[in-house]
Amino acid sequence: MSSQAHFTDFKSDKQPTWCPGCGDFGTMNGMMKALANTGNSPDDTFICAGIGCSGKIGTYMHSYALHGVHGRALPVGTGVKLANPDLEVMVAGGDGDGYSIGAGHFIHAVRRNVDMTYVVMDNRIYGLTKGQFSPTSREDFETSTSPEGTKQSPVHPLALAMAAGGSFIAQSFSSDAMRHTEIIEEAIEHDGFSLVNTYSPCVTFNDVDTYDFFRDSLIDLEDEEEEHDPTDYDQAREKIMDFDNIYQGVLYQDDDSVGYEKRLGIDEPMNEIPDGAPEGAMDLVREFY
Amino acid sequence: MPEDLNWAVGGEAGDGIDSTGKIFAQALSRAGRHVFTSKDFASRIRGGYTAYKIRTSVDELNSVVDRLDILVALTQRTIDENLDELHEDSVVIYDGERSWDAEVPDEQIPLDVPLKSLAEDAGGAIMQNVVALGAACEVANFPIEHLDSALEKRFGDKGQKLVDNNQEAARKGRDYVRENYDHDFGYDLDTTDEDYVLLNGDEAIGMGALVAGCRFYAGYPITPATNVMEYLTGRIDEYGGTVVQAEDELSAINMALGAARAGARSMTATSGPGIDLMTETFGLIATTETPLVIADVMRSGPSTGMPTKQEQGDLNMTLYGGHGEIPRFVLAPTTIAECFHKTIEAFNLAEKYQTPVYVVSDLAMAVTEQTFSPEEFDMDAVEIDRGKVVDEDDIDQYMDEQGRFQPHYDAADGISPRAFPGTVEGAHMTTGLEHDELGRRTEDTDERVQQVDKRNRKVETAQNEEDWSPREFGNEDAENLVLSWGSNEGAIREAMQELDIDVRFISVPYMFPRPDLTEAVESAEKTVVVECNATGQFADVVERDTLTRVERINKYNGVRFNADELVDRITEAFAAESEVTA
Ligand SMILES: Cc1ncc(C[n+]2csc(CCOP(=O)(O)OP(=O)(O)O)c2C)c(N)n1
Ligand code: SF4
């Protein structure tokens, strides 16, 4: 396929089973557009997905893809990218997948800084298992497993990423199609690990963190009065640690970031191997003399 | 005098026992002698008894025995721990000048050598172990030049001065014994012109992986598998590959899976607790039909069990682990050299059949160094089979009518085509969910059955197409049949030389699929299965396969079988009235 792919080339012929109105539609459209706009094609793109309503995204898109087990999509993406740095690797999943069962991998993926884009569809609830609280749920959020609120403070993904040494930290809102797409494009173009926490409302189980809520509360960092410079670490930190407000845009980007695969010196796909033992293999034996 | 010499160095963990033992083992191997080593260590870094034992002979060795001829004791505990292995001609080398008066029992020959002060004379107390090696050379009547050569290998990179000092230290030890002990200890270590290599099971697995074209390794450190990762680190880069130390085993196996999906020959290695963590993803690997090699270097379980002790307790786990039903291959190398060969085979099987393949080895092999003639690792014989990989030229034949690539195409032999990401027109997804031929999720009853059958058919195909023969020893017509799997082979073979009864021994390196043992078991009067676990996991499998009761020899105290004890236990087992009378 040529590099002139249209975003619809990234669409599979499988109809999404998401609830009508689910934020994941918008998230997915933005991802497909961003991939096409940055010159990628389905044949050189690899999408790793988590488990959850959000994780189904790989099924509805068309590219090389793997839909794995709950919480482990980031390690899969890491393996794919290291084994073939020519591929555009994108990892997607929910807030439960990424910040709960997969939280350990999240922190390590951030600091390992493999060049891939991680889109977390943050709906502040567990959708697929039908409405239990998630790690990003508010403390007073009442759900089937938290009838009197969660009684624990929510995870702050951007702060976690910053603490782990993140090189690209961004947030978007799935229904702000243009900005969401732009932000993912920037994430794709960043050399290193890019986190895009995407608010992607669950219309079925979350009646608190709704479209209206996000629309009303999001502050866009592109707004002139914000004067935000994402390469300024201190400014970024201030916004990221400001838990009273939520922002849309690239909060932090390290200009000097170099992907882990480059630092390892991997410059070619690892899929070609000799027909028999490699030349000089007896030297491996001779080491044991 | 016995034909083999048994030597050990022991002390506190942190005393450099391991490297001292290894240097001596290398000296012996460079002198053209066979070496078989074993280690006794506790799960701690400093403090705690640790010993490195070497058995050496000009003949091939495959096992340890309960006898020590020369013991270098850096602590009293070393002597105490080994009392029952010392005999009346055993020599105990110790340093009486250090603040302990060694209590060497009367029967043994004490050799008080001022190891520390002689080492200081040579340039530093740190070389006291090398002084002891020099003393051991004199006791064993072993030319010190071979030790020189091993020291050169060990310290050569760090400068000639260090080599000189160590060689000098060794001479001081030798000369001290020469001058102060007017005693012929009766040993005479022959040397030969053979050039042996000396390596352990983990290194053999790592070397096998490199040779087989493994390019990606992800792992999390765990005894006794860590050595595989350490071996590959640094070496794999030269072939364009990489090693990733992951944050845990969950991550390790998922990274390895990702790399395999991207087209790299990929592997991970761990031990029991790590296998537990990997099991969920193991199912994903099988369902997505991803080729992956997983080495389980077993140690004593369950839970953290005895991390530095031997056991073969994970057979059931590797055969049956995982929810649902999972096609897989399980290989169990029977010797250190086989760790090399079976690892190569594992990569071919994994890619040919697009399945996960376990290579099950154990602590006894992982920490044992053994000599081999280099020809055992015949590189010309290595074959690489990548299976049904399609490229843009032949991908068309695996398209459906709408021109979509079918990664789970329902082929007659069960083996679908594989398109590496990047292959034009091959874009597809795979999932741990049940899927159709296109890889798309399905709950359709027919498609479910089709895919389950397809995956299982790969096993049938492999059963017919590959050679799953066991290794055979002894008299084929003997009425006594001994069966074992994995690392017990050497000890059993050696025991057979001493047995008064005639036995047929079948050593099984394939746990799944496995050879059909029915005929062998039926034609034997009695069958005894030897394995290092308490419940007889392999014996259970044999009984089920052959519908015949077998006797069991089990050991689960954390120590591998040795040849001497097997002579007794096998004799006893065949002499005993069978529990089940016909
Ligand atoms: C090991 C494991 N535990 C639990 C589950 C069940 N499970 C499926 S999705 C999910 C939560 C998904 O939440 P989130 O990641 O927020 O995704 P959403 O459905 O909200 O998009 C859980 C717990 C599972 N599939 N695997
Ligand atoms: S349950 Fe919520 S998250 Fe899941 S598809 Fe429906 S709206 Fe979307």
Automatic annotation (TrEMBL), chain A:
User: Can you give the residue ranges of the Pyruvate ferredoxin oxidoreductase beta subunit C-terminal domain?
Assistant: 202-264
Alphabetized GO MF terms: iron-sulfur cluster binding; metal ion binding; oxidoreductase activity, acting on the aldehyde or oxo group of donors, iron-sulfur protein as acceptor
- CDD domains recorded for this chain? TPP_OGFOR
Pfam families registered for this protein in UniProt: PFO_beta_C (PF12367), TPP_enzyme_C (PF02775)
Q: Enumerate the cofactors the protein uses.
A: [4Fe-4S] cluster; thiamine diphosphate; Mg(2+)
Q: Which UniProt keywords apply?
A: Iron, Iron-sulfur, Magnesium, Metal-binding, Oxidoreductase, Thiamine pyrophosphate
The UniProt regions of compositional bias labelled Polar residues, in chain numbering, are 143-153
**Annotated InterPro entries:** 2-oxoacid:Fd_oxidoreductase, OFOB, PFO_beta_C, THDP-binding, TPP_enzyme_TPP-bd
Task: State what protein this is by name.
Answer: 2-oxoacid:ferredoxin oxidoreductase subunit beta
Residues covered by the Thiamine pyrophosphate enzyme TPP-binding domain? 51-197
The record's annotation in SUPFAM superfamilies points to: Thiamin diphosphate-binding fold (THDP-binding)
Q: Which GO terms describe its biological process?
A: cellular respiration; organic acid metabolic process; sulfur compound biosynthetic process
Q: Where is this region: Disordered?
A: 134-153
Task: Tell me if Iron-sulfur is a UniProt keyword of this record.
Answer: yes
From TrEMBL, chain B:
Reactions catalysed, as given in the entry? 2 oxidized [2Fe-2S]-[ferredoxin] + 2-oxoglutarate + CoA = succinyl-CoA + 2 reduced [2Fe-2S]-[ferredoxin] + CO2 + H(+)
Q: Which residues form the Pyruvate flavodoxin/ferredoxin oxidoreductase pyrimidine binding domain?
A: 208-453
Region (Disordered) location: 432-472
Q: Which UniProt keywords apply?
A: Oxidoreductase
Q: What is its EC number?
A: 1.2.7.3
Q: Compositionally biased, Basic and acidic residues: which spans?
A: 433-460
Residues of the Pyruvate/ketoisovalerate oxidoreductase catalytic domain: 13-174
Root EC class = oxidoreductase
The molecular function GO annotations come to: 2-oxoglutarate synthase activity
The record's section on InterPro entries has:
2-oxoacid/accept_OxRdtase_asu, Pyruvate:ferred/Flavod_OxRd, Pyrv/ketoisovalerate_OxRed_cat, Pyrv_Fd/Flavodoxin_OxRdtase_N, Pyrv_flavodox_OxRed_cen, THDP-binding, Transketo_C/PFOR_II
- Please cite one Gene Ontology biological process associated with this protein: organic acid metabolic process
- UniProt KW Transmembrane keyword: no
Complex and partners: Heterotetramer of the KorA, KorB, KorC and KorD subunits.
Q: What is this protein called?
A: 2-oxoglutarate synthase subunit KorA
* Protein species of origin: Halalkalicoccus tibetensis
Taxonomy-wise, where does this protein's organism fall, top ranks first?
A: Archaea, Methanobacteriati, Methanobacteriota, Stenosarchaea group, Halobacteria
